[in-house]
């Protein structure tokens, strides 16, 4: 018995209310992806193990119904903002002391 399989696909662009994304945008994005492919492969080879660990860490956070990553990022953001605020206040106080 000979089994024949055919695969067909349809690409359909529909009118939407956000900026137009036409066929040429689609083609250029595919060409850009192909152009970037060697760089992506190099990145995956270089950081692949780290990316796997990150995925596992994120998935374990989701399984626990809590993402420590979000909390850590928030704490880091607040720390950076406080540091920047402190630097700005020091610059202001120096400028004020100098009579500016």
Chain-wise SSE layout:
Blueprint: H1 23-63, H2 68-97
Question: Briefly, what is this?
Answer:
With 100 residues, the chain is mostly helical.
Features:
single chain, 100 residues, mainly alpha, 2 helices
Structure report:
This protein has helices spanning 23-63, 68-97. It has 100 residues and is mostly helical.
Shape: elongated
Tally of DSSP β-strands: 0
How many separate helices? 2
Question: Main β-sheet, in a few words?
Answer: none
Mean pLDDT: 77
Stretches where pLDDT falls below 50 for ≥5 residues? none
Termini separation: 92 Å
Structural class: mainly alpha
List SSEs in N-to-C order: HH
Radius of gyration: 26 Å
Helix content: over 70%
Beta-strand residue fraction: under 5%
Oligomer: single chain
């Amino acid at each position: 018995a000979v089994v024949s399989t055919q695969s067909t696909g349809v690409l359909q662009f529909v009118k939407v209310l956000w900026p137009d994304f036409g066929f040429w945008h689609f083609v250029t994005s595919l060409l850009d992806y192909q152009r970037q492919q060697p760089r992506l492969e190099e990145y995956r080879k270089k950081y692949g193990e780290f990316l796997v660990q990150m995925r596992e860490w994120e998935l374990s956070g989701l399984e626990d119904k809590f993402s420590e990553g979000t909390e850590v990022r928030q704490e880091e953001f607040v720390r950076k903002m406080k540091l920047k605020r402190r630097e700005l206040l020091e610059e202001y106080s120096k400028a004020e002391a100098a009579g500016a």
